[in-house]
Design a protein that fits this description.
Elements lengths: L21 H5 L2 E4 L2 E4 L1 H8 L2
Antiparallel strand pairs: 1-2
Length: 49
């Protein structure tokens, strides 16, 4: 039997680092019916999915 450590796959991916100002991110959060939400398009922009 293999232990858990042998099953871990390590992948190196090149990641672009983008810095965002917290005030800019706060402007993307809306309150709708008492819940804080973000538009999916804004989340995609932040995470570059």
């Amino acid at each position: 039997m293999m232990n858990e450590e042998n099953n871990i796959i390590s992948r190196n991916k090149e990641v672009d680092v983008i810095e965002y100002d917290m005030d800019n991110i706060k402007n993307l959060i809306y309150t709708i019916r008492g819940k804080q939400v973000m538009l999916d398009s804004d989340v995609v922009m932040l995470y570059q999915c």
